[in-house]
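User:
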Amino acid sequence: MSIINKCLFPAAGYGTRFLPATKAMPKEMLPIVTKPLIQYGVEEAMEAGITSMAIVTGRGKRALEDHFDISWELEHQISGTDKEALLVDIRRIMAECTFSYTRQHQMKGLGHAILTGETLIGDEAFAVILADDYCVAEGDGVLTQMVSLYQQYRCNIVAIEEVSADVVQHYGIIDGDEEADGIYRLRNMVEKPAPEDAPSNLAIIGRYILTPDIFEIIRHTPADKNGEMQITDALLTQAKQGKVIGYKFKGRRFDCGSVKGYIEATNYTYAQQKP
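Assistant: Predicted structure:
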């Protein structure tokens, strides 16, 4: 059994960069070839030994729940045909995992979305996956790597990667000391800094392992100038106590929150498939 038992998926955002496609379809249901983004995230969590999936949804997100449920009409229609093989993966997920859902009624930042999931998580360390950060790795998946690291450090862990200086304003950027190869003890994090103010070019991406005290910290973290509760601001409280590790993961991330990254992810995944 994994030392981390639950994975939280913040999935209440509107996906405005993909309009009009996301007008009636959740961005997490956008397909990479034949699987939606959210399914890749769930499979990554499962590889890390996690079977309890907690999903923070919002209005218009019913398709997420339906995807991880039985479609009796569809099952009946394709029963006994070669199309049944196409449902093997999703049937395995449904058999091995449990899914719980809660709604975020207002879009008030990632920190608020994570806080909304508190009732689904309880008092234990947990993983967080942002499904539109689609990660691939040749060996262990990114979350599997992070769970292994958590066994050693037993504190908050954020996945980081190098980005070019001209895009740091789109990320939370870390400052810290490298304790081992690719492992940083963080002392500061800056949310979306101007390039000239960025402490490094190491950006936080959508994979976290968080300790349960983060909920109380988020509750007491002031909102930013846009009225949003940022998870980086809450984690900064922990970083000042030496309780946040930045991990430069082994693998590749596609930013599927952008059209360019989504197309790159689709082309990459299609090229990896066997003829």
